[in-house]
Amino acid sequence: MDALQIILQVLLVLTSAFLILLILMHKGKGGGLSDMFGGGVSSAAGSSGVAERNLNRITVSFAVVWFVVVVLLGLITKVG
């Protein structure tokens, strides 16, 4: 159980970091964190609808993986 828990914790840290980066890359609707940190990059990449849709899909995929890892870690902690 210890090895599985360590693997899940590492996966949780990695997916959390990628989620933060992916969310900041989204095109902002107004002036916010996305404009402050990645405004130039997101406006160039976000100008095409395909890039924004792909970014949305990747973000949702990472969010689902993050959620599953959190649930698994909770179950392991409760059982162990």
Summarize, please:
This protein is mostly helical and 80 residues long. It is built from three helices and no strands.
Task: Walk me through what this model shows.
Its main location: membrane. Involved in protein export. Participates in an early event of protein translocation. It comes from Isoptericola luteus. By secondary structure, the chain is an all-alpha fold. It has one domain. 85% of the residues lie in helices and 0% in strands. It is built from 3 helices and no strands. Helix 1 (2-25) packs antiparallel against helix 3 (49-79).
List the helices and strands and how they pair.
Elements: H1 2-25, H2 33-45, H3 49-79
Family: Belongs to the SecG family.
Organism: Isoptericola luteus
Function: Involved in protein export. Participates in an early event of protein translocation.
Give me some keywords for this one.
80 residues; mainly alpha; 3 helices; 0% strand; elongated
